[in-house]
Design a protein that fits this description.
Helices cover about 35% and strands about 20% of the residues. It folds into 3 domains: about 1-70 and about 150-215 and about 305-375, 3-Layer(bba) Sandwich (FAD/NAD(P)-binding domain), CATH 3.50.50.60; about 95-135 and about 400-485 and about 495-504, no CATH class; about 230-305. Helix 1 runs parallel beside helix 7 (about 150-160) and helix 13 (about 400-410) packs across helix 14. The chain is globular, with a radius of gyration of 23 Å. With about 500 residues, it is of the alpha+beta class.
Length: about 500
């Protein structure tokens, strides 16, 4: 066993400071240092989080209501995908979904399967109309909402939290010194000092300066299709209308666009393939999409090669964040990979010691996590009917994953049950696949032959009635933003009345 008395994090972005905040709160008895660049260069792609993010912040001891305004936050109830597969299609991917409808474990998805002439979103997805009307349901709110955040302000807040408990060095790494086994012994810094540590976490982004990049590239194998984005900040024209409690990700000619509303502006970008679309053309197209509310000079070009590391943990160095892998902005996997990376790492070293078995387990679990995320993102591009150079490239090269094919066939199984307990430690679970594939038009076999039609009708009517009640009892997104304690208030209210969310 190799003992760890101190840990050094190298990097100054979201990954570094999320890792530092988590470790200093949960492992206060170990010496922790962050080596941050003299001058930062944040990527600034992801400002939308997933459900795991608020839970991670709580594990860091962070008072979320107090934080809300400091990170320019708004609420995220899900993602809307207009025009995916074909221009007239619209997919809703909610966070509020994994609930049984009644005691036999049947869901609203099962009920809809018997009457597929009904609109899936309004007949099977709780809170859909509530969210589309810019509202939030108090019964579902606390555990089924994530955030839209300003990534720069997030880093500033994390730095503030860590300032009294973490040794912070502002300097660039100019040389990495390794021993004969390839372990990092020390770092020579620009300030003239040499820093020694037992264990290092590499959060230096795509540069990955602490260990050689040994990567599984994901572009060109039919799995992923984008490698660039132009991004900027869109000013609000109508705050109450445009500040919606979800991310909008419409498919467009050159790829797709993200629209993430925070309190001060809309973070937005066009994701495309720079080998197909010239970046300058992408800038012009993006500005026209926003009716020239932004100019090409205001946009930042970000490019990448989608990949994940073959060895996230090697010797005494672990890569977390962009140094460990990056898929693309779709489905907000970036911040999620950072939080899962640091949590899994600290699980592997509970007594601040490790061996080869710990390293192998960590690498295996992170590889599974990334491949699962890639498979789900890949499914979004399947069977497209768009006819543009980008989407024709997708059609010609796309390869469905084994997981995609399994779920596609599973939907056709007359004996299948939608209700599936979530046991996986990956990001995407069976309900995520169910909802995506159904709304993309894949055939679903009629289910619940054992249930009398009149009972199905009754339950569907009950579901729709419950949604009408939600509409009247929900609050507007703007009111939710103004009341930073609202999530806690909702939780207390739900507990006092009983969690009605269990019905759906």
């Amino acid at each position: 066993m190799k003992q760890i008395k101190n840990i050094t994090i190298v990097g100054g972005g979201s990954a570094a400071w999320l890792a530092a905040t988590y470790i200093q709160h949960n492992h206060w008895d170990i010496s922790l240092t962050v080596i941050d660049k003299e001058v930062g260069n944040p990527i600034g792609v992801g400002e939308a989080t997933v459900l795991t993010f608020p839970h991670f912040l709580r594990k860091c001891g962070i008072n979320l209501p107090e934080w809300f305004s400091n990170i320019d936050a708004t609420y995220k109830s899900g993602i809307e995908f207009p025009h995916w597969r074909r221009p007239d299609n619209n997919v809703w991917h909610p966070f509020y979904l994994n609930r049984s409808y009644f005691q036999q474990g049947c869901t609203a998805y099962d009920l809809w399967a018997t009457k597929q002439d009904l609109d899936f979103k309004t007949s099977a997805l709780p809170t859909y109309e509530v969210n589309m009307n810019n509202k939030l349901d108090m019964w579902a709110a606390f555990e089924t909402l994530a955030y839209h955040i300003d990534a720069g302000k997030l880093v500033t807040e994390l730095q503030r939290i860590c300032s009294n408990t973490v040794n912070i060095i502002k300097s660039d790494v100019v040389e990495v010194n390794k021993d004969e086994q390839g372990n990092v012994k020390s770092l020579k810094l620009k300030n003239g000092t040499e820093h020694h540590s037992d264990f290092f976490i590499d959060c230096t982004g795509f540069a990955s300066i602490l260990k050689e990049a040994d990567r599984v590239e994901l572009l060109g194998e039919g799995r992923l299709f984008t490698n660039a984005a132009v991004a900027g900040h869109i000013p609000y024209e109508d705050f109450e209308k445009e500040c919606v409690p979800y991310v909008k990700c419409p498919a467009v000619d050159h790829g797709w666009i993200w629209k993430i509303p925070v309190q001060s502006r809309i973070g937005s970008g066009l994701v495309f393939n720079k080998d197909i679309t010239d970046p300058e053309e992408a800038k012009r197209y993006f500005c026209e999409h926003w009716d020239n509310r932004i100019t090409p000079d205001d946009l930042k070009l970000i490019d990448w090669v989608p990949y994940y590391s073959k060895n996230f943990w090697e010797g005494n160095v672990v890569s977390i964040g962009l140094s460990g892998g990056f898929i693309e902005p779709l489905e907000s996997t970036g911040l999620a990979s950072m939080t899962v990376g640091v949590e899994k790492l600290m699980e592997m070293i509970p007594q601040y010691a490790y061996n080869d078995s710990n390293i192998e387990t960590y690498n295996r679990e992170m590889e599974v996590w990334y491949n699962d995320a890639v498979d789900f993102v890949n499914s979004h591009y399947a069977d497209t009917e768009w006819d543009t150079p980008f989407w024709n490239f997708v059609k010609e090269t796309h390869v469905k994953s084994e997981k995609h094919l399994w779920y596609e066939n599973w939907l056709k199984d007359p004996n299948r049950k939608f209700y599936t307990p979530v046991q996986s430690r990956t990001l995407f679970h069976p309900p995520n696949w169910h909802l995506w594939l159904i709304q993309m038009g894949y055939p679903v076999n009629v289910d619940l032959n054992y249930m009398p039609p009149q009972e199905i009708d009754f339950l569907l009517h009950d579901f729709q009635l419950a949604e009408e009640i939600r509409m009247h009892t929900s609050v507007t997104h703007i009111d939710a933003i103004k009341s930073t304690n609202l999530g806690l208030d909702w939780l207390q209210l739900a507990q006092s009345r009983g969690d009605r969310g269990s019905l759906v």
